[in-house]
Structure formats: C-alpha cells, structure tokens
Write a structure and sequence with these properties.
The complex is a heterodimer of chains A (937) and B (442). Chain A has 937 residues and is of the alpha+beta class. Chain A is built from 32 helices and 28 strands. In chain A, strands 1, 3, 5, 6, 7, 8, 9, 12, 13 and 14 form a 10-stranded mixed β-sheet that branches. Chain B has a domain of 124 residues: Hypothetical Protein Tm1070, Chain: A, CATH 2.60.290. In chain B, the strands form 7 sheets. In chain B, strands 21, 22, 23, 24, 25, 26, 27 and 28 form an 8-stranded antiparallel β-sheet that branches. In chain B, strands 29, 30, 31, 32, 33, 34, 35 and 36 form an 8-stranded antiparallel β-sheet that branches. Chain B is globular. In chain B, 54% of the residues are buried. Classes of the chains: A alpha+beta (937), B mainly beta (442). Chains A and B meet through helix 24, helix 25, helix 31 and strand 19 of A and helix 1 of B.
C-alpha cells in the first residue's frame, strides 16, 4: 500500500468532539471576486467559528456577514483573538458542507493532528472526487491516486496521514500556523498547501485528511499543476524545505525533468510549455531573496530531517510517468483523440510497460539515442553539406537579412533559408553552435519518427508498424543515401516531411478558427520543410495531391496543397531572387543507385504491401508506392539536367513512400483466420519483407551519426587553426573530387572541382556559392593557367585572393604542376597534400601592410594607413568612406578599424516580413489551443 | 481499383527511374592526365634555372639574359632552404644584358633562378677565370628524367654534378651512372633527397673513378631538380646542363681549333639502341658516319676526327630509341662540353656570346636540309637595339661557322628561312667553351 493508504494506529470513527476548541475561519481571497457563496457556507457551519476573516484584496459580496477584512496574512494573525485554538483556512472557491468544520475539528482532536484537510469534490459534479489528500513526488508534484472522473463511493473514507492537503479547506493549529508564518503568499493555491504541510511536518506536526469533512470545489482546474505559477511555487517550496544535500540533486533533476516534459508538452496542446517552464525558473531567480528568508525561517524550527518528507513521497517523477503513459496511450489508441493529459490523474496503468506501444516507444527511443549519439559526443561531421554553424547566431542572422553572403569570394545575394532557420534555433540555444546542430539533428529524427507515426495513425496502422516506419523514413535506403552524401539540410527536411502531409490529410475542425489553424499548421510545417530543402516544398504538395487521388477528399487536399505552397513566403528574401532554372537546375544532382538486392527488396515490399493487405491499407500502400516511385524517379534524373535540390526532394519523397509501404507490410495480417495457406504464406513473406526494410534502416546505428558521412574536414584542416596568423585564419582553396569538397563546387574547364572557404573550417553559410562574379572569375582564370603549368610563383597570385593554403583532396593536374614553384611550401604529414603560401595573404590588408581579421559580418583591424583592400567580390556597398574598385576587389577607407557591407534594406525588410509571417502562422496555430486554456491563479 | 491504379502508376514511375542512366562523371579522369607533353620544346618559358654559377677572387660568372619582348626580370638565389630575391629590373624588347655574379656580393657557388614577366626568354652562364672559360645555357623545362652525358673521371679530371632544387618542395631523385664499362653502381644515390631551395653536390669522380666516359641519369621521384655538370682538370673548366633524351640529335660543332671533339652518346634504357651518324661537311657533302648499337644501359665515346670529313663538319645522330648526345672538347689546356640539339628550328635565341668581352666567339650553323637556308642574325644589347645584323646563306646539308664577336652585347638572335641547328663557341687563350642555343621558333 502506498502512502495514501497508510492509516494511523489511532484511527477512529469520527464522532462529536468532547471539547470544543475555538476556531477562526480564514477565507483566502486570491483574486477579486464575489465571496458571498463561500462566506455563506462558512457562516452556515454547524460548528460555529468564533470569527471570520477575509484575507485578500478587493473582495466583494461580504454583505451582512460578520467578517473582518484584512489585507495580509500577517495582519490576520495579529488580529486573531488570544485563545483561539485553530484556524480554518478556506479558499474562495471552496463550498464546505455544513458539517465540514465539525468533522475537521473532531478528526484533528481525536488523532492529535496539527493540520487536517477535507475531501474535495467537484462543485459541478458533487459525486466526483477531486482530492482526498495527496502525496507528492520528490519534486513536489502532487499525486492524488485518483482516476479521472472517479466517483466518490467512500472508498477513501479513512482518516490518515498524508503528504499535503489543499488549502481549499485546511484546519491548522493556531500556534503552528503562527509559528510557520502561515501560507506563503508568494505561492499559488496548490503549492502553497504543499509548502505549508511540508513545513508543518518538518516541525513534527501530523498532517491528515478527514474525508468526512467534505468540501465542494468550484472550477476545479485539472491543469493547475502545470501552470507556471504552480511550477514556480513547487521549486520555491523545495528550496525552502529541503536540505542542501537533497537540493544538490533534486534541483538539477527538477530542471531536467521540467525541460523534457515541457518540450513534450509543447506538442501536446501546451504550446507555451517551454515558456511557462522558463518563466517559473526566472520567477524563482527574481524572488531568491524572499525564498532564502523563508528557508531560514522554515529550517530554524525544524525538528525532523528530509526523510520525514520522503515518507509520504512516491518514487520517481509524476510528470515523467504521466508523459510516458500518455505516449503509450497515444500509440496504443490511434482512434482516440488525444485527451488532455492533465484531466487524468492516473499515472500508472496496470501493466502499461507491457503494452506493445510502450515497448515500441522504448525501442524507438533507444534507436534515436543510438543513431544520433555521435552527433552529441563528437559533433556534426564536417563533410558535404553537413557543416558547422557560425559561433554567433546574431551575426549569422544579421548577415542573413540583407548582409554579405560569404560563400567563395562573397556576394550580396541572399543566403539560403536554412542559414536563417538554423541561426534562429541557435539563438534560442544561447548561440551554442554545436548544441544547435545536435538539437536540430536529433530533433529532426524525433520529428520524423513521431510525424510518421502520427500520419500512419490516421490509417489505423498499429503501434509497432507506425514506430518502425519512422526508422525507414529517417535511415532507410533512400534517406541513408541522402545522408551519406552529406546532405544534412535534406536529412532535417526528411524529418519535417510527414507533418504537413499528416496535417493536410487529417480533417480539420469545421469552425472558422479551426480551419484557419489547420491551414496555418500546414503552411508552417511546409515552411519549416522548405527552409531546409526548398524544392521539397513540393513533397507535401505531392503527398496531398496523390492522397487526393488515392484517399479522396479532393477539395481538402487541394486547399492543403495551396496552404503548403504558402510556406514559400517564409523563405524570403532568398525565394524572390530565384528563377525556375536556379530552383530546378542548380547544383550537382545526386543519383540514387541502390544495390540490386536492395532494389529487389524494396520492390518485393511494395508489391506485398499493395497486393496482400486490406482495402483501406492497400490504398495507403498504393499511395506510398507512388510516392516512393516518384521520388526514385526524381532522384535518378540527373541526366535530364535537374539540379541537386530536385534530387534531394526526390529522396525525401522516396523515404516517405518507403516508410508508408513498410508500415503496411509490417501490418499484414499473418494470422491463420479465413485465408488460404498460400495467402498466409505470402503475407508472412510480405511482413518479412517489411522487417527487412527495418533491418536495412538500422545500418546507420553503427556509426551513430544518422547516416552522415565521416568527418573528412575537421582533422584534415586542423592545420589552419594551429598555423593561423595573429589576424586569424585566411582562406583555404580546396581542389579535388567533388565528393571530397564542402557544399556546392565550382569547376574548371577540364572538370576539376574546387572551393574556397574562409577557414579554418567551412561553415554552413558558405555551402552555396552564388553565380561567379569578378573575383570568382579572376580566380578561375588563374586556376586554369595553373592547369597548364609554368607558374613559378602561384603563391603570390593566390595571396591576392586571401588564400593562404591550397589543399588537394585528391590527385589533380594542378598539384602535379606545383612540384616546380617557388612560394607554396608543402606542409608535411597531413591527411591531404597541403601547400602553405610563403607570401602574406590576408583577406584584408591596409596600404601600410597591416592585416585585418574577418569577423562576421565584416573586417576589423588596426587603424593604420588610409585604405584597406578587401579581397571580396567588388561591390559598392562595402565601406566605410568612399568605395573604390581595386581590380576585382574593394578598397575602402581605414576609418576606425572596421569595414563592413551596408545592409540591403530591401532584403532585410523581406527577411523581417518572413519572420512576421512565421510568427503569424505560429499564432494562428496557437489560437484554438490558447482559447482552451483555463488559467486561474 | 485505386490501389491497382496506384500500383500501376508506381510501376510506371519505377520503370522510368530504372531506365535513367547515371550522369557522366564530372570530375576529370586523372589516370588519363599527364603533365605537359615534353614534345613542346619551344621555350616560351618565363624562367630559367641556373644550377651552376660561381664567383670568387679568380673566377666570375656572368648571367646572360635575353628576351624577345620587353620584360621585367628578377634574380633569386636559393640556398639553405631560403630564397633571397633581388629587385626586379626591366629589359628592353629584343634585349640582352650580362650581369656578373660578383655584382651581388656573392662568394662561392650561387645557383640562381631568373624569372621574366613574359616569354620567350633565355639565360646562359659564362664563367671566366685566369685559365678558365665555360659557358652553358640554363634550362627552362623540367623533364621527368634528366640525362647528363659527356663526363669523365680520368686521372686528374674532376667530374662534379650539381643538383639544384629551387622550389618549395623537397625533391627525391635516383641517380644512375654508365661508363664505357656499362652500368656503374652508385650506392646511396637512390631516393636521394635534395632539400627545398638548396643544392646538392655529387663528386662523381670519387664515386666512379678512372672512367674515360661517364654519363649520368637523374630520375625525379618527387619534386624537381635541375642538374648541371662541371668538368675540370685544373686548367680549364667545362659546364653543361642536363637534357631530356631524344631519338635525334644535331651537333653543328664537332671540334674547335686545337681541341678535337668526341661525340658522347648515352643510353639509359635497359635495351640496346641502334644509332647512325650523318656527317655534314662545310662543302655540303653528306657522308654516313659510324653506326652501331649502344648497349642499354651504356655510353660510348666516338672521336670526331678528320677521318669523317675534311675541314669543319657537323653531325646528326639518329637512333631507334631515346638517347642523349653531347660533344666533349679537350685540347691543349682547353676543355668544353656542349649538349646536342634534339630538334631544329627557324629561330634561335643564344644567351651568352660576348657576355665575357675578352673572349672570341663563333657561331656554328648546321643546315641538314636539302635546300639552302637564308639566315639573318643580330646581336642583342641592353638597349634592345638591333646590333650587327648579318645575313648569310647556309647551303644545303652543310655547316657554316661565322664569327660572333660583338662588343657590348650578351646574346644573339638567329632567324632562318628554314629549320637549322645552331650552337656557339668561345675561346680565350687556350681556354675554350661551348654553349647551347634555345629554340624560340617553329
């Protein structure tokens, strides 16, 4: 039996008290409102209180009731007459029955309890229990042990010791109340009660519930526990009551659990959960002084240690258990609309850990943790388009919105939306670049798995199949190939892909607000997807349109497709400078060529899923098959002149389709009921094919970096950090095979690929160079000359471009000619052949020879000389002072030692407009949810 | 029905995906790429590597620079891993200048690189001392395998090989030697490192003593080196560069006064090479000279004496495999070595004549063709003025010697109506020198 079921040795049937202790009723007016009902109930008690106080601001409805109105608890304590034995604290929402006080007094007297509480029932449904006293976990989260909507059948009617009682109706010894300082007025309703009871118990007092003392509670709010005030109150209570030793582990544990559950709740009808979480902690920081005072007071008179508190606590975390239970329920009950978790007080379903949904959830969780582990321990591998973010998110955002695009020798062209999106996320994570990359990567996997499960739940697919299809989505054959090319943004987009489709296929609320919210969610999901893979905006559109063909509901999916396209508005300013050619043809296309046996396995899975399943799931399989086939077609269309983005979109589409098909295959009914032996065998083979698809998806587990290629750059380019000049790293020219270069490449006439990066490592904002400008063409011309040979001083020429190192990631003609030159010194014992320029080669240098540093988004250095030459493509917006074109580069005034690019206000305005549009979408998504919130202090 | 339609559509799309072939590879196939073809022997290069230059109290070396276009030139001296650079200077179009090494306040050995802002250009070194006179052209091209024929380690003769690596990268080479006895063992000369911006000196006479004829092959494993050979006997000094091998060689000069010449042929391969020698007399006569088989690897010395032709004559060597050829002159107190010319051309630039004003110079023109060739030559000075323009006719299949002494000049530009081969010689007292011309035309 748990703590709620403990009974004191002296348990007796409540009877009329022998003595008549005097009681003063204290009605707590926590907010302005009419108190006539509660006062009427207090005055109507068969056990007359000797006085009634109302504590609080601006109460109304006092009428002729003989009450004394005081503003504060202290004032009340000072005015309570001498000789009063008890204080009966009653909340303004409480409606005690006429015999409540008598029962409380009797119960307290009989078992010598110092604090006694009432059984709470819903005023709106008097048979329904709200609380019969409660336990808490170590973090102060209450646990009543009741089922949601549990009817009172006197099953809990026994006086017993408990952890705390709600201050809706609390009888407390006057001297104890005075000694404890009463309720902490900084705390809200529930946590104030917990805090008072904890302090009481630490002082050796007994806290009991007297179930015969019934109180009807108006507006019982099941979500109260999750409000930010209650969260703040619980933390404050911990800080006041626990010993330092307990706090050392409990406070970090509370933070971590709060963060996890807040993130979870964000997607569960509490979109402001993270905000509430932060607010609660911030409140405690601001009120740390009063908390410290309360702690001193609480601990100065304590007679028991923390073990007294632990006695009435349940193990583990109530919030985590509720979260786990909710997850299990959702996976197990696809047809049920998610219920507000906090309407349910049941935390422990009998044997929930044995349910398939829970097991599948555990497996998927382990998969996510394992497949992303290397990203957390070693960081994102630097290869292809898997590139680190800049150290400063603010600088990245400033550059994104109308600043200088740093790819190659720079340009004023807007950067890809992924740069802005990742910088925004990085900003929320305190500008921690590595953390942001890891969070985005892991988040995309989580979103992909959850999104796919949500999508498939619409079609009644079971929990195992739903869960494992997520694996196929994120690390199946198509996704693994995509990730293997270093397409990190594409991988993230894969995780976002099922959301827009899932929302679009789900019937929206018929109300206007619901419809707007539905459209906004589709647009938001599509915008997020397109931010990472622009052409993949077509994926939800294709998914919805095909869905219209297969599932019906044409009108809805058409509207959804339009909403999906609206997501493009979030991609400004980049999207407005694009042309159809740049959308469809830019970049080196991928070519997905799975091994023959993998292709055969995919085909077998598709065939089995489509042919052997029931009608409903068969349409789902057909839908998935069309998506997969269409995606594969796009991913192999390099010869048709498509660009990289189209092939990435194709692979995302293919991953989606394969995941759906796999889910259907895993759901094949392999039982023996009513089918021929051949059909049964075929279904088993089909299910086996589905299992095989899942097994194929486990390959990336080995490396733990979600299928991304190994880091080819970090160690290879480490020399640029160790050998950097005092002004920082200069540019690095990388020449070699396309696959070994970061981002999109430029090519010489003979096909030799090359890239210039800022050093020491390539960053994400350098991955997509713009069309060549003057400087780029000059560099290309110089490299063309080097392919012929005969240049004795290539270093001097590279120095003009700020290039200090030339790295050959593979054999090239240029490297062969560098065996006979004077000023590029080979560095020994490195992974790749690296040549270091003997000539000074800063990116920016004054006319007096002082080198300046590249500090995103401009240059800084000593103010020496008159002009500074900036080795970026010439653009008159570089400054300060009079700009002059120095051949292909820029010459500006030295000024105060900074040089920068004047923001293009038009682009900045468009970027802000995009941000506002996204905010609008977010708000539109939140409106129905916010309206459902009932927030009471 | 819908799923059948869906399946059919999927099958159609899959079939379409299946037939699409992969795109052509964008990265170049490096296995098919070689370095710049060595067939291009026209010197359009903008730099020359002089592996040998020496100055002390007795000997001084002049760098003779010549360029067809107005250029800026700069001398750099690699030594000890560093590269010291002089200030750039300007040279007029069709100009030539002689710069003594001593003017740089350098003592001892001082190999140099000369860079020009434009081509064609050429550099030669002319060294003179009390009894010494030597001349050589500084190579511009960098073959993978160098051949240095014409050496000797006879008693009293010092044969020194200097390997210059002026570049930023260490070089590794393997040196092999042949003599009249065949292949010679050179232990310790495999994968030998020549550090960046430095030289290595090999005392061949100590490695392979007592050989009348020694030829060396330098194979570059990594990086590049420029070899130059030095032969001295205590009186005169001969300096000559390495060459790449060829199947044909022309040598307009086969003897100089009291210094008869020996034709030295060297074969670096493992297979024998057959050769024939054609003799071109000054009277236009063509006779077939000695022919034979050159063992691989091996070297042979063929005296160019009067038994082949009366008076002056030049030779053309033809082989059925790549060999190298040089002319070694040795006379009364005089010694000179010049490598052959692997090709003919209608335009030659000769850096060096008159760089040492005290010597007498001759130019040797060989027309191995069947028609007479009109030749116009002029001397180049620092101002770019056309000095001493002379026109001569070289009869078919004949060799012609013309005086080439012109004060205040440092190079000669030869233009011919048809391809010929050209070399020059210098003499001062008993000291002699022979130098090579640089092809700058078709």
């Amino acid at each position: 039996m748990g703590p709620l079921m403990e009974t004191p040795d002296t348990a007796q049937t409540v009877d009329a008290p022998v003595s008549t202790p005097s009681v003063v009723a204290v009605v707590i007016a926590r907010r302005p409102g009419d108190l006539s009902d509660v006062l009427g109930a207090v005055v109507a008690q068969v056990y007359d209180p000797v006085g009634v106080f109302v504590v609080g601001q601006d109460p109304i409805g006092l009428g002729d009731t003989p009450v004394r109105r005081v503003a504060t608890m202290r004032e009340m304590v000072g005015q309570v007459p001498v000789g009063v034995d008890y204080l009966w604290v009653v909340d303004q929402d409480a409606r005690p029955r006429p015999d409540t006080l008598r029962a409380l007094v009797s119960g307290s007297e009989q078992i010598d309890a110092s604090v006694a509480g009432s059984k709470l029932l819903k005023a709106e449904a008097p048979d329904e229990l709200v609380s019969v006293g409660a336990a808490t976990d170590v973090f102060g989260v209450p646990y009543t042990g009741l089922d949601a909507g549990e009817v009172d059948q006197e099953q809990y009617d026994v006086v017993r010791d408990i952890a705390f009682v709600e201050p809706a109706s609390m009888l407390i010894r006057r001297d104890l109340f005075t000694g404890l300082g009463g309720l902490d007025t900084h705390m809200p309703f529930e946590s104030a009660g917990i805090d008072l009871c904890q302090r009481a118990r630490l002082n050796g007092a007994r806290v009991v519930v007297v179930p015969s003392a019934e109180v009807l509670l108006v507006g019982a709010f099941p979500g109260r526990t999750k409000t930010w005030r209650e969260q703040a109150g619980r933390l404050r209570g911990m800080l006041k009551s626990y010993s330092l030793l307990t706090l050392l582990w409990a406070v970090p544990g509370l933070f971590l659990i709060g963060l996890i559950t807040s993130i979870h709740d964000t997607f569960r009808q509490r979109p402001l959960a993270l905000w509430d979480f932060g607010r609660a902690w911030a409140w405690n920081v601001l009120h740390i002084g009063s908390t410290a005072q309360g702690r001193v007071r609480a601990r100065s008179s304590r007679q028991a240690g923390d073990e007294e508190l632990f006695r009435y606590q349940i193990g583990g975390s109530v919030d985590l258990k509720a979260m786990a239970s909710g997850l299990s329920d959702r996976l197990a009950n696809p047809d049920e609309e998610a219920t507000d978790l906090f309407e349910r007080d049941v935390i422990e379903l009998p044997g929930f850990w044995q349910q398939p949904s829970f097991i599948a959830g555990i497996i998927v969780t382990l998969y996510i943790a394992s497949v992303t582990r290397s990203v957390w321990t070693s960081g994102l591998p630097v290869s292809g388009f898997s590139l680190p973010l800049r150290d400063s998110a603010l600088a990245s955002l400033a550059n994104y919105a109308g600043g200088w695009n740093p790819a190659e020798l720079g340009s004023p062209t807007p950067m890809r939306p992924v740069v802005g999106a990742t910088a925004l996320i990085q900003l929320l994570l305190l500008s921690k670049a590595g953390l942001a990359s890891a969070v985005i990567t892991t988040g995309s996997v989580v979103l992909g798995v959850v999104g796919m499960a949500r999508l498939l739940r619409l079609f009644g697919v079971g929990p195992y199949a739903r869960s494992f299809s997520g694996l196929v989505l994120m690390t199946g054959p198509a996704a693994a190939y995509l990730a293997g090319t270093g397409a990190w943004p594409g991988l993230v987009a894969t995780g976002l892909a099922p959301w827009a489709i899932g929302i679009g296929l789900k019937k929206p609320d018929t109300s206007a607000i619901g419809l707007v919210s539905w459209l906004a969610r589709i647009a938001l999901a599509s915008a997020a997807l397109a931010a990472f893979a622009p052409v993949a905006i077509g994926v939800p559109m294709a998914g919805l349109l095909f869905g219209g063909i297969v599932f019906g509901g044409w009108r809805r999916v058409l509207v959804g497709s339009v909403a999906s396209a609206a997501g493009l508005l979030a991609l400004m300013p980049w999207v407005i400078v694009q042309t159809p050619e740049s959308w469809l043809e830019s970049g080196t296309a991928l070519y997905f060529e799975p091994r023959w046996w993998v292709a055969a396995w995919i085909a077998a899975t598709v065939l089995a899923a489509v042919a052997l399943t029931s009608a409903g799931r068969g349409r789902l399989a057909a839908w998935g098959a069309v998506l997969a086939a269409g995606g594969l077609l796009l991913a192999r269309s390099a010869r048709l002149g498509i660009g990289r983005d189209v092939s990435v979109a194709g692979l995302i589409l293919a991953s989606l389709g394969l995941a759906a098909v796999t889910a259907v295959a895993l759901s094949l009914d392999t039982s023996d009921d009513g089918v021929t032996a051949m059909t049964r065998m075929a279904r088993r083979l089909g299910a086996f094919a589905g299992i095989g698809m899942v097994v194929l998806s486990l390959a990336p587990l080995l490396a733990g970096r979600v299928g991304l290629p190994s880091d080819t750059m970090s160690e290879a380019l480490g020399f640029a950090s160790t050998r950097a000049q005092p002004h920082g790293s200069d540019r690095i020219l990388l020449v070699g095979p396309t696959a070994a270069l970061p981002g999109e490449v430029r090519r010489l006439a003979d096909g030799t690929a090359y890239r210039t990066i800022g050093g020491p490592l390539p960053h994400l904002d350098e991955a997509w160079p713009d069309d060549p400008r003057l400087g780029d063409e000059a560099l290309a011309g110089m490299l063309e000359e080097l392919t012929v040979g005969g240049e004795l001083r290539p270093g001097t020429r590279f120095a003009e471009f700020g290039i200090r190192w030339v790295v050959f990631t593979g054999p090239t003609v240029i490297e062969q000619h560098l065996s006979a030159q004077l000023d590029l010194r080979p560095l020994p014992d490195l992974k790749y052949p690296v040549f270091e320029n003997d000539e000074p080669s800063p990116r920016a240098v004054t006319d007096t020879g002082v080198a300046w540093s590249w500090v995103v988004p401009g240059y800084e250095g000593r103010s020496d000389g008159e002009t500074v030459r900036i080795a970026e493509n010439a653009d008159a917006r570089w400054g300060p002072g009079d700009w002059q074109q120095d051949d292909w580069a820029n010459a500006v005034a030295v000024g105060d030692g900074t040089a920068g690019f004047t923001t293009i206000t038009g682009y900045r305005a468009l970027a802000l407009l995009s941000g506002a549009f996204v905010l609008l979408l977010v708000l539109a998504c939140l409106v129905p949810t916010v309206r459902q919130r009932e927030v009471r202090p | 029905m819908r799923r059948i339609v869906g399946l059919g559509l999927a099958a159609l799309l899959m079939a379409g995906a299946w037939v699409l072939e992969p795109p052509p590879a964008l990265d170049p196939d490096l296995a098919a790429v070689t370095t710049t073809a060595e067939e291009d022997l026209i010197s359009t290069s903008r730099f020359s590597h002089c592996s040998w230059a020496f100055a002390d109290g007795d000997v001084d070396t002049a760098f003779a620079l010549a360029a067809l276009a107005e250029v800026e030139y700069q001398l750099s001296f690699p030594a000890g891993g560093e590269l010291s650079q002089e200030e750039p200077q300007v040279l007029a179009s069709l100009g030539a200048v002689s710069i003594p090494l001593s003017s740089f306040r350098v003592q001892g050995e001082a190999p140099a690189i000369i860079e020009f802002s434009d081509g064609p250009s050429a550099v030669g070194v002319v060294a003179q001392g009390d009894t010494e006179l030597s001349a050589a052209t500084c190579p511009s091209s960098l073959p993978k395998v160098w051949s240095v024929p014409g050496g000797s380690t006879d008693d009293g003769v010092q044969f020194v090989m200097r390997l210059l690596n002026p570049f930023a990268e260490d070089a590794r080479v393997t040196i092999r030697g042949t003599s009249e006895l065949g292949s010679e063992a050179l232990p310790g000369f495999e994968n030998m490192t020549v550090p960046a911006r430095a030289s290595r000196t090999i005392l061949v006479h100590e490695e392979i003593p007592g050989r009348a004829t020694v030829s060396l092959t330098i194979e570059q494993i990594e990086g590049s080196v420029i070899p130059m050979a030095e032969l001295s006997d205590g009186t005169d000094l001969a300096v000559w560069p390495g060459v790449r091998q060829s199947e044909t060689w022309e040598l307009p000069l086969t003897g100089l006064g009291s210094a008869p010449g020996d034709l030295v042929l060297s074969n670096d391969a493992l297979v024998d090479v057959s050769y024939t020698i054609d003799i071109f007399g000054e009277d236009g006569s063509v006779t077939t000279g000695p022919s034979g088989s050159l063992p691989g690897p091996g070297t042979v010395r063929i005296p160019m004496d009067a038994t082949f032709a009366e008076g002056l004559f030049g030779v053309r060597v033809s082989a059925d495999g790549p060999i190298s050829a040089a002319l070694a002159l040795e006379g009364d107190g005089g010694r000179g070595v010049a490598v052959g010319l692997p090709t003919v051309s209608n335009r030659w630039l000769i850096p060096g004549p008159n760089a040492e004003p005290a010597a007498q110079y001759e130019m040797w023109l060989l027309n191995s063709g069947v028609d007479d060739v009109a030749v116009r030559y002029q001397y180049l000075d620092a101002a770019g003025d056309a000095v001493g323009v002379t026109e001569v006719v070289v009869p078919a299949t004949s060799v012609l010697s013309v005086p080439a002494t012109q004060a205040q000049t440092a190079a000669v530009l030869v233009d011919a109506s048809a391809p010929i081969s050209v070399t020059y010689s210098a003499s001062r007292g008993r000291a002699i020198a022979v130098g090579e011309a640089v092809r700058v035309g078709e």
